[in-house]
Amino acid sequence: MFDSLTEWIFDNSFVRDLPADPEKKNFRREVGGIAYSRVSPAPVQAPALAAYSRETAALLDLSESAVADPRFVEVMSGNSIPTGADPFAMAYAGHQFGSFAGQLGDGRAIALGEVVGNEAGRQMIQLKGAGPTPYSRGADGRAVLRSSVREFLCSEAMHHLGVPTTRALSLVTTGDQIMRDMFYDGNAGREPGAVVCRVAPTFIRFGNFEFAYWRDDNELLRGLADHTIRGFFPHLLASQDAPITVDVYIRWFEEVVALTVEMIATWMGVGFVHGVMNTDNMSILGLTIDYGPYGWLDNFDPGWTPNTTDAGRKRYRYEAQPQIAHWNLMRLANAIVPLIDDVEPLQAALDRYRDQYSACWSGVLNAKLGLIDERDGDAGLVADLFGLLQRRETDMTIFFRALSDLGVDQVLTAESDAETASLVANAW
Questions:
Q1: Beta strand 189-200 with 122-128: parallel, antiparallel or unpaired?
Q2: Is residue 8 exposed (0-12), middle (13-18) or buried (19+ Cβ within 10 Å)?
Q3: Which is nearest to 202 in space by CA: 302, 92, 124, 288?
Q4: Taking the CB of residue 317, how many other CB atoms lie within 10 A of it?
Q5: Cα–Cα distance measured from residue 9 to residue 17, given in angstroms and rounded to the nearest whole number
Q6: Are 264 and 318 in contact, with CB atoms under 8 Å apart?
Q7: Dist. CA 107–CA 423, nearest whole Å
Q8: Three-state SS for 166?
Q9: CA-CA-CA-CA torsion for 226, 230, 235, 241, nearest 10 degrees?
Q10: How far is CA 281 from each of CA 246, 276, 325, 368, rounded to the nearest angstrom?
């Protein structure tokens, strides 16, 4: 265990492997031919530790004394850069609400670098709310306390719900007041600022590859793919130095599809609605990333979305998430076609998505319902169950918790399917 952040070992493969922005000044601009811009966090007035995750700290080999060290707050607020760190903001593009948005990038997230440790291996350390970057698009690069609390809590909650996700190490208040229009009604006001430290093996997104494709930069595209495969999919290679062939690119995409399927099925299983499933919010590792206007279903409403800006179209509603994930994977496939020069293998992987999702979703449901094996009629049973939940406006989470308290003998002695359905519906 490390007793101080000064003991952290950085090995910054992203900045080492990929091209950097030659411009050293931090101002908003369009970029091309690069994967990131070096930028340092902006200092804050009075940082204070509001919360931290003991589990994530242990994952990063940090002892309690390391967290208690005043330097911890200084680093997690962005006021101090640890030795070996090489801070940067990623450049990426993306489709937002179905339309290509051009250059996006880390507008308020700055990665300190990648630390290597015993338990977790390589982990990227990223500060969200650490100040402006070249990709801030007119914003201040800061984050307010209310949204930071939500991200910190949800990251750790999702992990414990069994959902693939980025993790949260710390929540630091800044002592600064940030101007925000909380309800988007023109009545902006000042709110306390905060910085969340997010942790993941990498924060590479579908949008990174879309950026290279959009810029018609095959060298950058190949560099991103090779970095991703060698760093996070090494099992696809005969050895670390083995050449990356077209077959490897295809198998990599197939694995990204499978990881995305697993993530979406687990979202659906806990009634989670991401709210902003843009391609720039889709992790290449199948991790839940960028907790914005997320939520969980209360009354079971498949058409619900927590995103008020999507209230009209409801593109990212609960029931649409599997289809949106497939659509996003299509955008990724389109971006990496130059690596393969053949659309058929990518289309074949996409064509298997529906069956893969169906199988994964069945596994999630079987676990939630306590079904040991699959039988004819299960699909109808599930359809009837969700129909009941919707008609009765039942809280999904409370229902499944209450279902575990329903005695098996009650169900076995029910005299009809209708009585069984009534028992189940009233379990909550």
A1: antiparallel
A2: buried
A3: 124
A4: 20
A5: 18
A6: no
A7: 51
A8: coil
A9: 100
A10: 26, 7, 11, 28
Cβ neighbours, 10 Å, residue 4 = 14
Q: Residue 386 burial (CB < 10 Å; 0-12/13-18/19+)?
A: middle
Q: For tokens 């000044």, name the residue.
A: 25
Cross-strand bridge partners of residue 177: 192
Q: How would DSSP label each residue in 288-343?
A: B---SS-EE-SB--TT--S-GGGTTT-TT-GGGHHHHHHHHHHHHHHHHHHHHS-S
Q: How many residues does the chain have?
A: 428
- Whole-model pTM? 0.93
Determine what percent of the chain falls in helix, strand and coil, rounding each to the nearest 5. 45, 15, 40
**Do 318 and 302 contact (CB within 8 A), yes or no?**
yes
Biggest distance spanned by C-alpha atoms of the chain: 75
**pLDDT string in tens for the chain (428-residue length):** 899 999 999 999 999 999 999 999 999 999 999 999 999 999 999 999 999 999 999 999 999 999 999 999 999 999 999 999 999 999 999 999 999 999 999 999 999 999 997 677 899 999 999 999 999 987 789 999 999 999 999 999 999 999 999 999 999 999 999 988 776 667 778 999 999 999 999 999 999 999 999 999 999 999 999 999 999 999 999 998 899 999 999 999 999 999 999 999 999 999 999 999 999 999 999 999 999 899 999 899 999 999 989 989 999 999 999 999 999 999 999 999 999 999 999 999 999 999 999 999 999 999 988 887 777 777 888 889 899 899 988 899 998 888 887 766 665 565 555 555 565 556 55
Residue type, 16: R
Give the separation between CA 93 and CA 409, rounded to whole angstroms. Answer: 56
Which residue is associated with the tokens 């000064």? 6
Q: What CA–CA distance (Å, rounded) separates 112 from 124? A: 8
Tell me the catalytic residues.
Answer: 280
Contact 172, 194 (CB under 8 A): yes
HSE, CB side, 13 Å, CA atoms: give it for residue 142: 22
Find the helix or strand (DSSP H, E) in which 96 lies: strand 95-96
Six-digit token pair at 133?
């970057």
- Structure tokens belonging to residue 272: 């989670």
**Letter for the amino acid at 311?**
A
Among candidates 112, 38, 106, which has minimal Cα distance to 77?
A: 112
Distance CA 349, CA 330 (A): 10
